[in-house]
Amino acid sequence: MSPTDRPEGEYRRAQPEGTSVAGPVVSPLPRAGTARVGVDAAPGAGDRTSSLAGTASGGRIATAARVVLVIAFFSLPVSTALTNVAFACFVVLWLFAGHLRERVAVGLSYPISKASLLLYALFLLGVLWSSATSEMIVHQLGAYRKLLFIPLILSMLDSEDWTRRCLWAVYLALALTLLLVFADAVHPLTFSRATREIHTANPFLTGNHYIFKHHITQNVLLSFFVLMNLVLVVYSSSRLYRAAGLACAALGAFAILFLAQGRTGYLTLAAALGVGLFAARRQRKLFYLVLGTAAVSVALAAASPSFHSRVRKVYEQLQLFESGHQLTSGQGIRLEFWRISVQMMEDKPILGWGTGGYNQEYHQRAQRHHLGYVSAGTYNPHNQYLYIGTQLGVVGLLAFVAWLVAPVVWAHALDPPRRTLTVGLLAILAIHSMFDSPLFIVTEGHFYCAMLALLFARPRARFAGPPVAAAS
Predict the structure, then answer these.
(1) DSSP E strands: which ranges in 133-247?
(2) What's the CA gap between 294 and 274, in Å, rounded?
(3) Is 41 helix (H, G, I), strand (E, B) or coil?
(4) CB 378 within 8 A of CB 400
(5) Distance from chain centroid for Cα 284
(6) What phi-psi label fits residue 451: left (phi over 0), alpha (psi between -120 and 50 degrees) or beta?
(7) What is the pLDDT of residues 447-470, one digit of tens each?
(8) DSSP three-state, residue 233
């Protein structure tokens, strides 16, 4: 029986001696050839790669591409500029790494790759009925190019070692972020984004401490960090790593609830805790341990004046919106963005306004309503569902929802740790998409697409020579 086929409750106890990994990946990843036909690889994909024996793995350029990919994963929570440069370099190296036809075949053998290409193809088709400027169309197509990285990443991550290195890179970058959040709360760091943007007092518990990214982005990423540590708690065979994971999860939850503003993080944190609880459901002690962490987080939040203030502000903005008054907060202004977006979908429900069509049409409607925050909504409606729905109609909206839901089914073929991470990542993305347009934004878009590819990646034989027929 393979690790993939074991019941979740038996997974940690059944691990062979020495297979536990000290880090974000806490279980042995499936070996080459364990992909399930029709779920992880297309029929015949294994035949194309399993006979390519060798140690070069495509040569030095392919190795360099993987090194750059590790850097790219580390850069996701840290630097937008480095993320753009790293992924651009990765694409160039991928093109010159050799065995292009075989790599394309491997990348496209994953259902998540096909679904991502289909979603991007709809944006290309949307150009046909769009009245947007060519500049706006190019901007939209460029913004969703992260979907194209998924098959590229999958075709390059052909070993357990490189997959683990990428996961370690993400984990360490998020751990560094969390450490600096607490450091900034104790004493303002000169290089933190909060210090540069906030010129008033920034106290410990009632302040807004964000380091590399905007506080909303930071909270969403830290929610996934909490989930990574809960996976460590549930599936690791080491008491030390379980204790460390529980401590890091608790600190991450504390940072989201008290050290940074923004209400989106509350919901993404709830999703991470919920998925962690579900993963621990068959292990009573661990279940109550994770449940206790979640209960303490809720109790502390309920006792926090700043938490009550933020929740009360949302309620007040809802009342103002219903009474027709001018809205002032970020959450309140979003309601106006959504109202106009829904009107746009009602006017063109099937195919929408075309790729890039939202921005110009929203601008015109906002001006007619004499809104004082026209430019903010013109950028995007702060709702991924509406952003796609206004441009590609119900067709595009259903395609996006299917892109979110289908990987949950495909994740059944993964080992329990990666299945939990995949479901949690998609739950966080689904909630995040209600209050922002994460696939459109640089950091979030790269993060979600790259992590999906990383979690679905399966070790394969490495490319070192021309294909050899299986019969030979």
Answers:
(1) none
(2) 9
(3) strand
(4) no
(5) 29
(6) alpha
(7) 999 999 999 998 764 444 333 333
(8) helix
